[in-house]
Specification:
The complex is a heterotrimer of chains A (about 400), B (about 100) and C (about 240).
Chain A lengths: L2 H19 L1 H35 L6 E7 L2 E3 L1 E2 L2 H5 L5 E14 L4 E8 L14 E4 L16 E5 L1 H7 L6 E5 L5 E10 L4 H4 L2 E5 H8 L5 E2 L1 E6 L5 H11 L3 E5 H39 L3 H12 L4 H33 L6 H5 L16 H26 L11
Helix pairs in contact in A: 1-10, 2-8, 2-10, 8-12, 10-12
Chain B lengths: L2 H32 L1 H11 L11 H4 L37
Chain C lengths: L4 E12 L7 E12 L3 E5 L6 H8 L7 E6 L2 E2 L5 H11 E4 L11 H5 L10 H15 L14 H13 L5 E5 L7 H16 L3 E5 L3 H4 L6 E6 L2 E2 L9
Parallel strand pairs in C: 3-8, 3-9, 6-7, 7-8
Antiparallel strand pairs in C: 1-2, 1-4, 4-5, 9-10
Helix pairs in contact in C: 4-5
The chains are: A alpha+beta (about 400), B mainly alpha (about 100), C alpha/beta (about 240).
């Protein structure tokens, strides 16, 4: 075997025996370091999984959403605004939506109520495929007086679970004037669509208008669809000019919002963790830079029996690399298991906020080489620097220290 | 067995576990991918702009289309202090203030 | 018949902190020659320069001036790295307190000098066992060095000094912390090694060492100077 390789293997053997001799201390260091890496990796994996999922899933979202703003707050947008947009070249269609939140006081849970006209929405003719049972709510027979009829509603899985409703069941919701609106479950969304529909009560737009008592002529927002996706930003600018009191959101901004939200939250947590990592590195530096008399003697003895300074440095580097390397692998593996199989349960509230009803979703992070490299640089390299650099000074203990004075 | 051989074995075991997990993850990802057409129809047909991740405050349920500002915020750059702004769940049982 | 010299020191000087206020001249114009197979005792009080002389002979550092040749190599011309290599090939050290690593086993202590040479573990163990058998402590090979007796520690230290088959053994006050029985045992082993062709230098002010029949010469060291510098030529 090549002499240099044989020498390094001998040094690794010695490093491992040295680590084993102080196994409780080194084991504790390894576990703590693995814990820090586990937390940092979990946050990174969750963030990348959430942003990747968002970008993939929300790709067919409306090209542009227009909201009316008054005194910096959103309010209902007049349907008449659609006419102001008819002159803009490139717009395929403008579709109003009525949607909002319904707070169930008994269960203290928020549901999202959404009302659309399926005849106007893209792919709405296929909405039946999103349902496990039943059909999507159609327009009320008497559009002029929807309050008189029982409204069909499609429910997400968490809603049907919370309200204990089966397909065909009847239930009531309060209008703002505390009158009751009766609905019947016409369909149940498939569990596979939980990521989007778990808390939804989907109605026809007329029924939603009645439920929220939104005056005729108003909608919550307008969805704009364009012919050429490359023109979205251009059109958004022109819409903003045409409707100066509106907020114009493009799909790209939606995606960036998610990056910002998850980035903000995970960044906050990462800063706390990086502080923990810094404390860990400082401790490691402190440990490595102070040589006890025994350690000084050990280095002097090694020197006098023929070990050179680079051999001693190599030994200490191997010790640090073994601890850091195993901690890194262990932390990363546990982080992956935590994110994929436990849905990042340890800190989901940090990433997405807490809720009374808990949507289920599986996050599958795409672990790429650059992610591993980034995590390695953030965690292992500072530790190696903190342990090896002070060792340089200590490795220069002179050999004659082993001789008597 | 030499210590370095034991360490190499440990390393191999960890890497093998990692590889297995990645393969399993790929399988799960493929299954998720298979459900993508259903999700596409939901997003397009309902005009959805946000995922259902947390169902409380509007800025977490619909961060994409929520108000960027709210009155009486403690800081111009911070998000309004609704319960979901917190990082931790409230202690059970949660009681609303009168 | 002229003997082959293993150690040749001519007008060797060693000064610490030259030019500074705390300048110390540890060795002054030292001439010393030691032939192959000789056993020499360096005797002198503390601070006499014994340890500095031993360090120069031991290739730990070169002299400040003068000519020092150990096993044919001029020390002054050797860079640090080659000094270390020359030391590990030529010299085995036995220390006052043996300087073994108590947490390591006897076997691991003995094979320490072989690790940076890339000697495979099996070969390391084989060489160590040969020495342990010769010294009669092979039954202790897996014991931690911190848990064996003083006499056994002594033999482990000797084994470590011989593991690379070095021709020159340097022992620095080896009997300072031993009782007379162990001191006698130590000198008996040194005599055997001398008979096997090793060259041995022992620093000691123990009369048991200086007056031992195996000692060829006693070299007095005082204030950095030495007396009785050359081996007798036997015609």
């Amino acid at each position: 075997m090549n002499r240099a390789l044989a020498k390094q293997l001998n040094l690794v053997d010695f490093a491992l025996s040295s680590l084993w001799r102080r196994r409780w201390k080194n084991g504790a260091v390894l576990l703590v370091f693995a814990g820090v890496i586990f937390l940092i990796s979990s946050f990174h994996l969750v963030t990348t999984a959430l942003t990747a999922t968002t970008q993939r899933v929300l790709a067919p979202a409306p090209d542009i959403v227009i909201q009316k703003m008054t005194a910096g707050r959103q309010e209902s947008i007049p349907l008449a605004y659609q006419e102001k947009l008819t002159g803009l070249f490139g717009i395929k269609k403008v579709v109003p939506r009525i949607w909002g939140y319904y707070f169930d006081e008994v269960r203290e849970a928020n549901f999202t109520v959404i009302g659309v006209d399926p005849e106007q929405m893209p792919l709405a003719e296929h909405l039946g495929q999103v349902l496990a049972r039943g059909h999507f709510p159609a327009a009320p027979a008497n559009a002029a007086a929807p309050e008189a009829e029982i409204a069909p509603a499609a429910l997400g899985s968490l809603v049907s679970e919370a309200l204990e409703l089966e397909h065909g069941a009847f239930f009531s919701l309060f209008r703002p004037d505390l009158s009751l609106k009766t609905l019947q479950v016409s369909g149940l969304f498939r569990p596979e669509s939980d990521l989007l529909t778990a808390d939804l009560i989907a109605l026809h737009i007329g029924e939603a208008r009645d439920l929220f008592q939104v005056p005729a002529g108003l909608a919550t927002d307008l969805c704009v669809y364009v012919y050429n996706p490359a023109e979205i930003n251009n059109l958004a600018r022109r819409i903003a000019e045409a409707l100066p009191d509106s907020r114009v959101l493009t799909r790209e901004q939606v995606a960036r919002t998610y990056q910002a939200v998850f980035g903000w939250r995970s960044g906050f947590a990462a800063v706390c963790l990086l502080a923990a990592l810094a404390a860990f590195a400082i401790l490691a530096w402190d440990k490595a830079s102070g040589l006890s008399p025994e350690e000084r003697r050990e280095v002097a003895v090694l020197k006098i029996v023929g070990w050179e300074t680079p051999d001693i440095l190599a030994l200490r580097s191997w010790e640090a690399l073994l601890v850091a390397g195993f901690a890194f692998l262990l932390g990363l593996l546990l982080a992956y298991i935590h994110v994929v199989y436990f849905a990042a349960g340890l800190f989901r509230p940090v990433m997405v906020g807490w809720s009374v009803i808990h949507p289920h979703f599986t996050l599958i992070p795409q672990l790429e080489a650059q992610d591993v490299l980034l995590l390695f640089s953030l965690t292992v390299l500072p530790y190696l620097a903190a342990t090896v650099i002070p060792t340089w000074r200590c490795a220069s203990v002179p050999a004659e220290d082993a001789l008597s004075g | 067995m030499r210590p370095v051989a034991l360490a190499a074995l440990g390393l191999l075991i960890l890497l093998a576990c990692g590889a297995l997990l990645l393969i399993q993850g790929r399988g799960l990802a493929d299954r998720q991918q298979a459900a993508l057409p259903v999700l596409e129809i939901a997003v397009a047909g309902l005009g959805l702009t946000d995922l259902c991740l947390a169902t409380e405050a509007r800025y977490t349920r619909h961060p994409a289309v929520s108000d960027p500002l709210a009155p009486f915020m403690s800081h111009p750059g911070s998000i309004e202090h609704f319960p979901t702004g917190s990082f931790w769940a409230p202690p059970p049982p949660y009681r609303r203030q009168p | 018949m002229a003997k082959t010299m293993l150690i040749e020191l001519e007008q060797v000087n060693k000064t610490y902190n030259r030019g500074k206020a705390n300048e110390v001249r540890a060795l002054r114009d030292v001439d010393l020659r030691v032939a192959v197979g000789e056993m020499v005792c360096l005797k002198g009080p503390s601070g006499s320069g014994k340890s500095t002389l031993l360090a120069i002979i031991g290739c730990v550092f070169p002299p400040s001036s003068g000519r020092a040749a150990i096993a044919g190599r001029q020390l002054a011309r050797l860079p640090d790295r080659f000094l270390t290599i020359h030391r590990r090939e030529t010299i085995g050290f036995i220390f006052q307190r043996f300087n073994l690593l108590p947490a390591l086993s006897v076997l691991d202590n003995i094979t320490l000098p072989l690790l940076p040479l890339g000697v495979p573990p099996k070969e390391c163990r084989r060489r160590a066992r040969v020495l342990l058998e010769r010294l009669g402590i092979v039954h202790r090979e897996n014991f931690p060095a911190g848990r064996i007796s003083g006499g056994e520690l002594q033999r482990v230290a000797i084994a470590r000094a011989l593991i690379n088959n070095q021709p020159l053994i340097l022992a620095d006050e080896p009997t300072a912390h031993l009782d007379s029985r162990l001191s006698h045992e130590f000198m008996a082993i040194m005599a055997e090694l001398k008979a096997a062709g090793k060259t041995i230098i022992i620093t000691s002010h123990d009369p048991l060492v200086a007056e031992h029949p195996a000692i060829d010469r006693v070299v007095e060291v005082h204030d950095g100077r030495v007396g009785d510098t050359a081996p007798e030529d036997h015609a």
